[in-house]
Amino acid sequence: AAGVIQSPRHLIKEKRETATLKCYPIPRHDTVYWYQQGPGQDPQFLISFYEKMQSDKGSIPDRFSAQQFSDYHSELNMSSLELGDSALYFCASSPRGWGRRAENTGELFFGEGSRLTVL
Amino acid sequence: SQQGEEDPQALSIQEGENATMNCSYKTSINNLQWYRQNSGRGLVHLILIRSNEREKHSGRLRVTLDTSKKSSSLLITASRAADTASYFCATGNRDDKIIFGKGTRLHILP
After folding, report:
1. Per-residue pLDDT tens for A77-97?
2. Which residues, other chains included, contact B16 with Cβ-Cβ below 8 Å and sequence gap of 6+?
3. pLDDT above 70: residue B107
4. Nearest CA to B4 among B68, B75, B79, B87?
5. Does the beta carbon of B1 lie under 8 angstroms from any beta carbon of chain A?
């Protein structure tokens, strides 16, 4: 079965550089979530998209932006990278708009993550 | 601040024993979910319990939810070495913000 695909799996950047992470959700999943997980930390919710529009926002820095495209894939753009941005970035998708339809599963399907290292 | 707080933070038990992890949360929820994460890997959904449910089973997993105490527990029975992982609870509401707690690192000893 198709899973959530994230690319690249590993990325090394210098401080003040920019990085773009990509996420391809499971086919027919219309909601995408981005999470950041530092070493030994819990996943921190960054942002979510439903039907190509931002649906909710968490602790995403102003230096970061994201969007969901017409084919439902999503990209997380990170600029002016800082050492503290080094983390695993996870994308997750879910099969229907959370809370917006009568019957949603609420289950998130995660990709394997993109490990960003900022030097 | 995070919604869910796991307890204990780390747990080591012998293979075959039962493992119990607890989660507390602060605000009202629509449902609560448990996920497993092997080191450096993506999170895997284990089980979801809705706010109007009190207990749910799935294989060797049993989840309880007490909305009056804003807490949940995950019980893994007859633990196996492959159960070694971090376990997170996550709370969902009617928005698209699913918040994870700090996780319990479970280590199954052979």
Report:
1. 999 999 999 999 999 998 765
2. B78, B79
3. yes
4. B87
5. no
